[in-house]
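Problem 12. The chain below contains 147 residues. Write out its predicted structure in token notation.
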Amino acid sequence: MKQKEPKNIFIRNAVSPAFIAESIGKHGEKTGIGAHSIFLGQVRADVIDNKTVTGIEYTAYEDMANQQMFLIREDIFEKYPITCMHVYHSLGRVGTGEICLFVFTSSPHRKPAIDACEETVERIKKELPVWGREIFADESYQWKKDN
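Solution.
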């Protein structure tokens, strides 16, 4: 039996709408699925100290984050009767209005898909070594304080 290994959840820059659509479309053939739950994290144009955020530059301790995501994934599959889960997180610069986090869970029924997706997002925000540096219109920056 093949040993499960952590998958790389990181993609360069923003998660494109085409990538999201393609990911969703691939599940049409899985006829045992009755529900999908999707979370899309989008970069906001917050105003902080009279400066507007124009993007966030994401960095991560990738090996550790992928290993932790593997553990989260295993926990979620043990806790909820889901069929599949996909997680993609941006690295590099993501502009305001663009997607930086895509979490997609599927199951035969809606409640497990929704609950699994919500818990996965919360755990990603709390447990993964991923950091965001908010970039302002004047190209100054600060490390993001909230998740």
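Discussion. The chain has three helices and eight strands. Students who got a different answer should revisit the alignment rule from Section 12.3.
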